[in-house]
Amino acid sequence: MTLGLSGLRSLVRLIDSLLQPTPLNQQSVAINVPQARADLLDLVAQLLGVLQLAAWGGIGLYLLWRTGIKLRVIGLDGTRKLADSLGALGLAAIIGIPGLAFYFAAWALGLNLAVQPSTLDNQWWMSLALILAAAGNAWAEEVLVVGYLITRLQQLGWRQYTALFAAAVLRGSYHLYQGFGGFVGNLVMGLVFGLYWQRTRRLWPLVIAHTILDVVAFVGYTMLRGKVSWLP
Questions:
Q1: Please, which pLDDT band fits residue 120 given cuts at 50, 70 and 90?
Q2: How far is 84 from 106, CA to CA, in rounded Å?
Q3: Helical ranges in the chain per DSSP H
Q4: pLDDT tens-digit profile of 31-56?
Q5: Pairwise CA distance, residues 226 & 156, whole Å
Q6: Which of 37, 19, 200, 56 is nearest to 142 (CA)?
Q7: Is the separation of the CB atoms in 144 and 3 below 8 Å?
Q8: 118 backbone dihedrals φ, ψ, rounded to 5°
Q9: Cα–Cα separations (whole angstroms), residue 137 to 111, 144, 161
Q10: Is residue 118 helix, strand or coil?
Q11: Where exactly are the transmembrane stretches of this chain (predicted)?
């Protein structure tokens, strides 16, 4: 009902893109798009999207809580603020810099669509909405894909690395709308993030790192759009 369904929708969108007469890298896809013509209605719609993402993560936490798994067990308590922050910065650097290079390579090779992180109009609330969207994406994905799914799969008797790979495939699946590069890049991100969590049992670094990555992508793109020639 959440990210699994998003993965199926992304697969359909990728197939549709492949059926087009133009190559993938000559097509584009936008992530954050206007939801209404009126400015304030658009803002409300953007905030509702963030609320939905927050609720998705909340559902995962509730289902874990129903079986006696508390926030501290998956690493969402506040006992290690400094260590979690440093871990988040390290993860963001490990994924962000190579990930950007991989995206451009995949796009140049025709394996990816040109991804536009935002096509929102330049309104006073645009940056705030993008930051909240980044945080919402990070919260929903890391709680559901890592904290919830890996925990559940291991409870069902799956081996550590089998559960890790399955969660990473799910993460890649709902990015298929970006192309094959989007799938592979997020699969690798899922393996790195999931392994970090399995080793440390700290989920906050993943949520924070993911938020940083998306904020840089969303807000950075709006700042550079139309000002540099190397953005697709």
A1: very high
A2: 32
A3: 3-18, 39-66, 71-74, 81-108, 126-141, 151-155, 160-173, 180-200, 204-224
A4: 999 999 999 999 999 999 999 999 99
A5: 50
A6: 56
A7: yes
A8: -155, 140
A9: 24, 11, 24
A10: strand
A11: 43-65, 86-109, 176-197, 203-224
